[in-house]
Write a sequence for this structure.
């Protein structure tokens, strides 16, 4: 059966979801505002989903590699087109807004991160990504659901997660990394960040919730948000990031904020899923990512929250080292991702992805299992335990300063 188009999902969901909840019926109180002293003790995680699978080879380009230039005769970045970070690799120039974080050692670049096994199909690989499972497993709970349920000190009375943008294509449990937590984890997913930014009232937006957060979502507002000196980009990503800063300033931010970065028209092929005309779409969406996150850092610094914030990007898979006949790249395997924050130990982590000559789909396996990043978040950032969250033990990454 074919999947609905992005336009059908957007128009259909907006009509059905305006002011309602697919999963939520419970009547529970809203988030209690925290004092500034309490807020300063919180550890916020911001997950940025690069929907569709980012091209790591042009994000951190191996410009001195002759095979890279040969396999990508039209797409390969030259030394003059990138921001050189070392003798062999350069950051895509559209990411130049992140350079101050790199220079301040607050930006870590995770090279060769990904899942150990992929099918190169969005639906199934997103499924295993969200649940932190193997392709032969079919887990119900998202990995963050398990993490929160096993570390109860992180949870709130009602709302544990605020998400902006689409989380998951599934209709029965469209909660991405927060799946299976209908009774135990409180999630409010606002599909269109600009609606919240315009009204600061969940009930005036198209939203989804889990049962735990249902009643709270209907009454959750942010009256008189702080007037910030920081200016944010005017796109949906910028609206979501600004909203996160405002929630933190008001003491209403939960332990987790999830933001999906996609094309403004909702078509992931016009953002990270670059099967064709990649040069048209990839640079602009990387620029949106960089400018949004740079503004986010300034905003969190402005309110004194940057040291209490950890941001990381992720996706279901990377892109192939080899360009295709349509001027794009098909699905690959390992990728390049970012982690940033006031306590991040900046620099390159992992190993540069080798440029292998493969068919136009696939690529080299990862050297960093993405569950090692998740373990780092749970244990080194939150000070919790990842035991039982994943099927086996993963060594945390050297991502954070002591």
């Amino acid at each position: 059966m074919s999947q609905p188009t992005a336009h059908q999902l957007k128009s259909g969901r907006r009509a059905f979801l305006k002011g309602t909840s697919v999963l939520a019926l419970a009547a529970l109180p809203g988030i209690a505002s925290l004092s500034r002293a309490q807020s300063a003790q919180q550890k916020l995680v911001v997950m940025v989903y690069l929907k569709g699978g980012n091209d790591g080879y042009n994000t951190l380009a191996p410009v001195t590699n002759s095979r890279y230039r040969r396999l990508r005769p039209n797409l390969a970045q030259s030394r003059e087109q990138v921001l050189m970070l070392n003798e062999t690799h350069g950051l895509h120039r559209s990411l130049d807004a992140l350079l101050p974080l790199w220079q301040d050692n607050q930006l870590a670049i995770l090279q060769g991160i990904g899942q150990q096994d992929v099918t190169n199909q969005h639906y199934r690989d997103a499924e295993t990504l969200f649940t932190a499972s193997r392709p032969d497993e079919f887990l119900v709970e998202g990995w963050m659901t398990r993490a929160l349920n096993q570390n109860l000190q992180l949870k709130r009375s009602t709302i544990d997660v605020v998400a902006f943008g689409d989380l998951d294509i599934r209709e029965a449990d469209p909660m991405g990394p927060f799946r299976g937590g209908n009774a135990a984890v409180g999630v409010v997913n606002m599909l269109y960040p600009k609606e919240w930014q315009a009204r600061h009232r969940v009930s005036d937006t198209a939203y989804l919730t889990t049962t735990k957060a249902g009643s709270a979502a209907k009454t959750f507002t942010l009256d008189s948000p702080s007037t910030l000196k920081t200016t944010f980009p005017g796109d949906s990503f910028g609206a979501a990031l600004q909203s996160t800063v405002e929630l933190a300033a008001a003491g209403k931010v939960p332990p987790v904020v999830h933001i999906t970065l996609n094309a403004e028209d909702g078509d992931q092929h016009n953002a990270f899923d670059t099967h064709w005309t990649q040069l048209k779409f990839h640079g602009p969406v990387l620029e949106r990512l960089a400018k949004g996150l740079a503004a986010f850092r300034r905003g969190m610094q402005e309110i004194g929250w940057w040291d209490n914030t950890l941001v990381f990007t992720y996706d279901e898979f990377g892109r192939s080292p080899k360009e295709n006949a349509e001027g794009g790249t098909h699905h690959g395997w390992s990728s390049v991702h970012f982690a940033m924050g006031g306590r991040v130990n900046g620099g390159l982590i992992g190993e540069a992805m080798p440029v292998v000559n493969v068919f136009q789909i696939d690529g080299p396996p990862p050297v960093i299992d993405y569950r090692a990043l998740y373990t780092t978040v749970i244990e080194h950032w939150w000070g919790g335990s990842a035991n039982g969250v994943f099927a086996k033990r993963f060594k945390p990454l050297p991502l954070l300063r002591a």
Notes: The chain has a mean pLDDT of 90. Residues 6-381 form a domain with the Alkaline Phosphatase, subunit A fold (CATH 3.40.720). DSSP finds twelve helices and 15 strands in the chain.
